[in-house]
Write a structure and sequence with these properties.
Blueprint (H helix, E strand, L loop, with lengths): L7 H4 L7 E4 L1 H15 L4 E5 L6 H13 L6 E4 L18 H10 L4 E5 L2 H14 L7 E6 L3 H4 L7 E4 L2 H16 L8 E4 L3 E3 L9 H16 L6 H8 L3 H12 L3 H19 L4 H7 L5 H12 L3 H8 L1
Parallel strand pairs: 1-7, 2-3, 2-4, 4-5, 5-6
Antiparallel strand pairs: 6-8
Length: 312
Amino acid sequence: MVTNDHLVPLVANHPNCRTLLIDSVSVGNDAARYFSSLGRFASYGFVHGAIRYPWSMEREEGFRAALPRKASISVFPGETSVNALDDPTSSVIPHDELGRWLEELPKPAAVFGANDLFAREVLTVCAQLGIKVPQQMTVVGCDNDPLLWGGMRPSLSSFQLPFRKLGYKAAATLDRLLRGQNPPQGTVRVSGTRLFERESSAHIPPATALVEKARAYIAEHACEGIRVDDVVSRLGVSRSLIDLRFRQVCGKSVLKEILDVRLAEVRRRLSKTDQKILQIGRDCGFSNPDNLKRLFRKRFGCTMREWRNGGR
């Protein structure tokens, strides 16, 4: 009976052996679905060790498959590494390389470590760099190893693998072999994780979730001329509440967020297109050209024509 994927090649063709393994693809699926349940993230990361083990590559495969189709996904390390069996001692993650990778992830980011050891390294480097967990970086590991998550601050959220279920299936399969019966051929994959949620992935506060929904709506519709009341109607909350939450989370009002998105698009079009300035204003949701001129000069210290000439 084999329950370790490193040993599978040694017994794959033996007539009296059966293989049962943790379904690592489903582990990655569960991690991605958990992150999706927490809300929107600007990016997602997956961390192998310094080398890529077969089971960690399967977890990455499952993680990618279950994330939103347009999600931004980054993997550490970036290069395909040698097989883990060639050098089982080379799993130490270089902190300088991991640090550069973590800093480059758009925030807020959600990072899944292929196991608790790799996830703990992420938490360690985040602490060294001043990256806030879970506000800027939500981190989850796998194995639920108390020797690894117990001493960490913040404590590490982790998936418990179905080892008990694997043991039951292994015992049942062995019993059938001893009775002369013929258990299923090939590899049996056992799925079913349990998440132990701790500080590293504490639920996003309701205020943050509400603001993220508002920002997503504003980003998509700001240039259509929407007003604060349209955002309020979309979210089904009071204007005073959404303004309060916006100031708490972003340090600005909903109106300023709408104007920021519009002005950013005005700047982009001034630099990248030959559209007339008056038409740009209309297309970006400004019905009053004089109001746009005043806002633009106040915000950027120059006229739109000066910006266009300088950008060119």
